Amino acid sequence: MKHLSEYRDGERAQKIIERIHASSKKEVRIMEVCGTHTVSIFRSGIKEVLPPHIVLISGPGCPVCVTATEEIDKSIKLSHEHDVIITTFGDLMRVPGSTSSLQSERTNGADIRIVYSTSDALKIATNNPEKKVVFLGIGFETTAPTIAAAVLEARNQNIKNFFVLVLHKLIPPAMDALLSSGDLKIDGFMCPGHVSCIIGANSYLPVVEKYHTPCVVAGFEPVDILQSIYMLVEQLERGDAKVEIQYKRGVTFEGNRNAMAIMERVFEPCDTPWRGLGVIPKSGLRLRAEYKGYAAESIFDLSVPKAKEHPGCMCGDILRGVKTPVECPLFGKACNPSYPIGPCMVSSEGTCGAYYKYHAGVK
Ligand code: SF4
């Protein structure tokens, strides 16, 4: 297939659905790790056309959703510094911290600016030499190379007032943590397309080998997702566990070596907190010693009180795949896209938001 429309073609989709029904005998639980997959699955109604014994579970692959409450609290604390301009991607603005959000702080006068790229943040730093400009670096391996490149650019241009609060998360350690927790049964992973473009499909080999859990890297269109489910079902029916790539037009086994090299030059792995999953060893990034001067922590005290979660919000359980949004008593009532209580409703890739928008029977 060459054209995007072919990945949305109803006839092709129908043929794969028939193959899935013909092959699938065992009850299987497949986790789609990525929030973009979750949204695509809901939008195209894929759950409704699968045999009932194939269960799709939404995972922790929404970068905004897994940003820990204490990390939002640190960002808010930074925004209270009188000589700081916070720069961030817009989707972080409404994510709740313990008592506030960046959006509320901006309404109250904090200088928080939404940017569309790290170049915008560097420009703000150049234009405001009397201020300290802090970029909130969130996201998975997809965005981390861009932030690493911005740090290198700041050094090349001798920009001394640019800092990063590095909140990045790494996907393979989270998959390992989900399997090792024993909280829920996962028979196979539908692995994220965008992250895998950077890290390559071989990055999932340790999970496959340690847990005998098959992994298929999937594209984002309905035919991609159905093909990936079929590939996982075939492996599971045969008792295989290997890494396969369905999304061959975007992903290789080796990944993007240039992007990985920039990321590894600037960052090193560290333990980091995830909303709902706690601290996962080596699942985050921090600046290497050579670049420590660009870390927000190098000039500000970012200690914050123990984070407080909204008492009714079940985002943590939803991000671990152990609950679905409709099990949350606030879903669709006190919590909805206009008045989101948790990040899973705030984000366009959040599971609660996707359920609210597309789930049959939910208004
Ligand atoms: Fe949290 Fe709202 Fe989702 Fe409930 S519906 S888990 S309150 S985001």
Oligomer: single chain
Q: What count of helical segments does DSSP give?
A: 16
User: SSE order, as H and E?
Assistant: HEHHEHHEHEHEHEHEHHEHEHEEHHH
Strand order of the largest sheet: 2-1-7-8-9
Question: Helical content, roughly?
Answer: 25-40%
Structural class: alpha/beta
Give the CA-CA distance, first to last residue.
36 Å
Tell me the Rg in angstroms. Answer: 21 Å
What small ligands are held by the chains? iron/sulfur cluster
Strand content: 15-25%
Spans of at least 5 consecutive residues with low confidence = none
Instruction: Report the principal-axis shape.
Output: globular
Mean residue pLDDT: 93
Strand count, sense and closure of the main sheet?
A: 5 strands, parallel
How many DSSP E strands? 11
Model description:
α1 (10-23) runs parallel beside α12. Strands 2-1-7-8-9 form a five-stranded parallel sheet. Strands 4-3-5-6 form a four-stranded parallel sheet, with helices on both faces. A two-stranded antiparallel sheet has the order 10-11. By secondary structure, it is of the alpha/beta class. It has helices at 10-23, 35-43, 46-49, 63-66, 69-79, 102-107, 118-127, 144-156, 171-181, 193-199, 205-211, 222-238, 257-266, 315-319, 343-346, 351-358; strands spanning 28-34, 54-61, 84-88, 112-114, 132-137, 162-166, 188-191, 215-217, 243-245, 267-274, 278-287. The chain is built from 16 helices and eleven strands. Bound molecules: iron/sulfur cluster. Iron/sulfur cluster binds at residues 312-315, 318, 325, 328, 330-331, 335, 341-342, 344-345, 352.
